[in-house]
Design a protein that fits this description.
This protein is of the alpha/beta class. It has a domain of about 120 residues. It is about 30% helix and about 20% strand. The chain contains nine helices and 14 strands. Strands 1-2-3-4-5-6-7-9-11-12-13-14 form a twelve-stranded mixed β-sheet. It has a two-stranded parallel ribbon with strand order 8-10. α4 runs parallel beside α5. The longest helix is centred in the first third of the chain and has 41 residues. The chain starts with a helix and ends in a 6-residue tail after the last strand.
């Protein structure tokens, strides 16, 4: 018995010694941990040392360039910036410019969209807005939450700076002005009914300068044309857009995507003078290389024209003669000529015919050839 007690006492002494050693080791490790943590705590990540104003500006550049509208959620959405950390969330929520471009889509989940649109309108403060309404069809008018989202946006029409609408015209939401800040209007309408239908909602537009329209919108909307300086017409026939062109004498830039045939058998087109037009661009939505029956340049007199971009087939059977006639008629000092589409005229022939033009570009079969007026062709 006594020898066993002595052994236990010795064992306890040994354990206490080992515990003391381990406690000293733990204490040393805790001290080292504290020192390392203090070093970490004292370190400032460079991005976290930036002023709030700089971080806000970085956030703004993270999004698609205004007035392009980011998605409401996911990558490239302003909402993503609120999910990184508390500090960034506070900065994002306090930066109205992050929330100023809003899309309402008729095919998005209506309940989620309504909440997010409402949040963006609130967070945008007093910023001018870029609004995009797309995919608005028959079904959209029977979604109460979509209607609520649209109504919320309509309430802020005094702040609209850019507006783009893609909708069936019969389901086009009623939009009433005034629009004191609206600078650009982009309308793509489908399924127009009677040819006599005209929508005159967009009238109080003192700042409007840029208009982008498809055929149906060009035919059925009345706008303050005289103040427009930039006009883009998509997928139109020339005889359909002439009534609009006749009223836009202050254009500086004009782009027209033309369908052919241009004319009905007995149609005669006006000749219209655009005293301030500097850039004229024609686009061909078709793939044909057959010369057209009429040169659309016959409609235009452009004494200030600097840049011309046109498919060669729009110039008819004799492209160089057509261009010569147009330049002479307009009395313009054309400096930049771009010929697109499959061509029959050698590039060098254009340069020889127009030595005063400083820059020529040729885009044929998706290959671009660009050089100065005195260079040789590639």
């Amino acid at each position: 018995m006594l020898p066993g007690l002595a052994a236990d006492r010795a064992r306890i002494a040994d354990l206490e010694s080992r515990i003391s050693n381990l406690e000293r080791s733990l204490a040393a490790l805790r001290l080292e941990k504290t020192a390392v943590q203090e070093r970490l705590d004292s370190y400032k990540y460079p991005v976290l040392t930036l002023p709030t104003e700089i971080i806000s500006e970085i956030f703004i550049h993270f999004l698609p360039t205004y007035p392009h509208c980011p998605p409401l959620t996911g990558p490239l959405s302003p909402t993503l910036l609120t999910h990184t950390c508390h500090a960034w969330r506070e900065i994002a929520l306090a930066t109205p410019a992050l929330w100023r471009a809003i899309t309402i889509a008729g095919n998005d989940p209506s309940s989620i969209q309504r909440v997010r649109v409402s949040n963006m309108l609130s967070r945008s403060g007093s910023c001018p807005l870029s609004i995009r309404i797309e995919g608005w069809a028959y079904e959209s008018n029977y979604e109460p939450e979509l209607q609520e989202a649209l109504a919320a946006v309509l309430c802020h029409c005094m702040r609209w700076e850019y507006l783009a609408i893609n909708a069936d015209v019969s389901e086009l939401p009623e939009i009433q002005g005034p629009f004191p800040l609206l600078r650009q209007l982009d309308l793509w309408l489908n399924d127009v009914g009677l040819p006599s239908e005209v929508n005159t909602a967009f009238q109080e537009l003192p700042q409007l300068r840029t208009v982008v329209l498809n055929e149906d919108a060009a035919l059925h909307f009345v706008l303050p044309w005289i103040q427009i300086t930039r006009l883009v017409l998509r997928r139109v026939f020339l005889h359909e857009c002439v009534p609009v062109l006749r009223q836009t004498s202050n254009l500086v830039h004009c782009e027209i995507q033309l369908y052919f045939p241009l004319l009905h058998p007995n149609d005669v087109l006006d000749v219209i003078t655009f005293p301030f037009l500097e850039s004229l661009i024609f686009k061909d939505p078709g793939s044909s290389s057959t010369p057209t029956d009429i040169n659309p340049l016959e409609v235009f007199i452009t004494p200030a024209l600097y840049n011309l971009d046109i498919p060669e087939r729009f110039l008819g059977e004799k492209p160089i003669e057509s261009l010569t006639s147009f330049i002479s008629k307009s009395g313009c000092n054309l400096q930049d000529l771009r010929i697109t589409g499959k061509g029959s005229v050698l590039k060098g022939s254009y340069r020889a015919a127009f030595p005063s033009i400083r820059r020529f570009s040729f885009d044929e079969n998706d290959e671009k050839f660009e050089d100065g007026g005195n260079s040789n062709c590639n």
